[in-house]
């Protein structure tokens, strides 16, 4: 099994295993994107007369078959191959011989992995946004059904002012809509074409056209200068993880509210028993475990963000193998975000507010009374505030 850097020298197996780590597993999700970028790169080489037209057509056809076979589960990346780039090129040379090896002309694994990763991140932004929009639509169904149900509004975990299911839920739909914008904006840093930067210093001696691959892959711009590409490593990833953490934070608040409102002390809402779990010792328990796990997911986002920023900090310019470790926290945060949004979309359909248990005491209208008193008596709000407060204290 040939690696892209192989010089036909023996490789220490322990070193290989440690340096590869679980990268060969992680890269499974990048195969389709690496193939997209490889076809675009090969097309550019053909247009510039750097490979034969006939070879390009063979390469393109073979790459599409390799991608289809991978999607159908007919092959996976193994440890010896290290990553998706080596695996794909090995399959290509197996089909085409030396013509398959010509695809690496004018590129390095450094710009190759970034091209695949950035294409993937662009799709992630769209996918997360779509999942959030679906969750928002389900919350809107709850608003339509029970929006007029009254709720107390809390400050300092004490009743402050009157609210409603509509007012409470619309706070979340507003912020989740903001999160949709945020995750789309976060992918802007990923919307620059790194192909042609190679190992970080361009492709001396080759007349390539970076704009061709930028256009064919749908990137907004070409990442210039070539030395900036490796310096940028970790920034697009951290931007996406940051927005994911913000999303998970909003979902954690929503889950916390549901858990609180579901408690016996509140009993503001009911959760269908089929999405609760039981206790191994207490027969009466119906636990909101799913919402508790949603509540904790934000911590995974925070940890992934810190991990990513720490890995990419204080490195000098150029590529360093440290950067390989960014994939794990990036993919972990993406997976937990998509899973969490989906489970909240499902779970929100299984809650309903119990109107008969929600009673607002008269004191919750104190602010409204102070406002009205200030207007009726033409006095300052502070005077009205004191008058209302005195009446409450005298009860």
């Amino acid at each position: 099994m040939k690696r892209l850097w192989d010089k036909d020298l023996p490789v220490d197996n322990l070193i290989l295993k440690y340096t590869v780590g679980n990268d060969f597993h992680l890269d499974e999700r990048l195969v389709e994107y690496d193939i997209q970028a490889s076809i675009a790169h090969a097309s550019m080489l053909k247009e510039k007369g750097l490979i034969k037209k006939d070879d390009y057509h063979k390469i393109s056809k073979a790459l599409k078959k390799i991608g289809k076979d991978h999607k159908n589960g007919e092959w996976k990346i193994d440890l010896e191959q290290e990553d998706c780039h080596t695996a794909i090129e090995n399959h290509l040379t197996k089909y085409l011989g030396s013509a398959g090896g010509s695809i690496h002309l004018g590129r390095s694994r450094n710009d190759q992995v970034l091209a695949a990763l950035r294409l993937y991140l662009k799709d992630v932004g769209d996918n997360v946004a779509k999942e959030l929009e679906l969750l928002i639509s389900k919350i809107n169904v709850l608003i339509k059904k029970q929006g007029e149900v009254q709720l107390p509004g809390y400050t300092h975990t004490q009743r402050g002012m009157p609210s409603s299911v509509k007012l409470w839920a619309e706070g979340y739909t507003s912020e989740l809509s903001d999160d949709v914008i945020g995750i789309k904006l976060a992918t802007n840093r990923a919307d620059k074409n790194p192909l042609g930067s190679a190992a970080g210093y361009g492709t001396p001696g080759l007349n390539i056209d970076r704009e061709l691959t930028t256009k064919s892959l749908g990137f907004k711009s070409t990442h210039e200068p070539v030395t900036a590409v490796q310096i940028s490593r970790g920034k697009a990833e951290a931007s996406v993880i940051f927005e994911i953490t913000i999303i998970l934070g909003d979902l954690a608040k929503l889950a916390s509210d549901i858990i609180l409102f579901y408690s016996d002390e509140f009993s503001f809402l009911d959760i269908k028993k089929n999405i609760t779990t039981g206790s191994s010792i207490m027969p009466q328990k119906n636990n909101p475990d799913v919402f508790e796990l949603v509540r904790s997911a934000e911590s995974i986002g925070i940890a992934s963000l810190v991990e990513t920023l720490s890995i990419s900090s204080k490195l000098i310019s150029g590529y360093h193998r440290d950067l390989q470790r960014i994939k794990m926290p990036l993919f972990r945060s993406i997976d937990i975000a998509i899973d969490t949004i989906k489970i909240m979309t499902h779970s929100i359909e299984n809650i309903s507010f119990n109107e008969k248990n929600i009673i607002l005491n008269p004191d919750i209208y104190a602010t409204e009374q102070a406002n009205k008193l200030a207007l009726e008596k033409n006095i300052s709000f502070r005077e009205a505030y004191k008058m209302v407060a005195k009446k409450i204290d005298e009860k």
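The chain has a mean pLDDT of 93. The longest strand covers residues 158-164.
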